[in-house]
Design goal:
Strand order of the largest sheet: 3-4-5
Oligomer: single chain
CATH topology of the largest domain: CBS-domain
Shape: globular
CATH superfamily of the largest domain: CBS-domain
Largest sheet: 3 strands, mixed
Strand content: 15-25%
Distance between the termini: 52 Å
Radius of gyration: 16 Å
Number of domains: 2
Structural class: alpha+beta
CATH class of the largest domain: Alpha Beta
Number of helices: 4
Number of strands: 7
Amino acid sequence: MSPEDESVLHLMSTPIVVLDPNTNVGEMLRVSERLSIHHFPLVNERGLLGVVCTCDVEGARPEQALWEFARRAPITVGPDASAREAARYMMRERVGSVIVVDDDGLWGILTRDDLAETVPTLMQHLHCVHCSSRQHLRPGPGHTMVCPSCAERELRTGND
């Protein structure tokens, strides 16, 4: 079996660290720093409500609730999905992670960094179009990806 066909079950990060949607930004950033993670599924009694990354809360006030910044339709895959399938979702939806879930609940999270480390060939096209960074990418113009630094630089340059 090729690495691209490996099940996300064997590549995902576990245990998954979830936060309540009402958790404030300051608390999320403390958890992020303490555990060195950047993507958080938001879960409450109704289930998975969204996902938020530390880059989504840049410039936010510490007391603001995470639900204000969350992607409300998180991209999910089943535990039997392949690495190739997960990478395809990440590229198509321009997201940095997929949540691994099935009828039994949340299993884990697979991030762009997990794939870059374990199956680098799948991530060769997922980088900033300006500097080639793979960190905290955001949608750019024309189905491209841009890192926060280059996005800010583009914004400043465009406003001059």
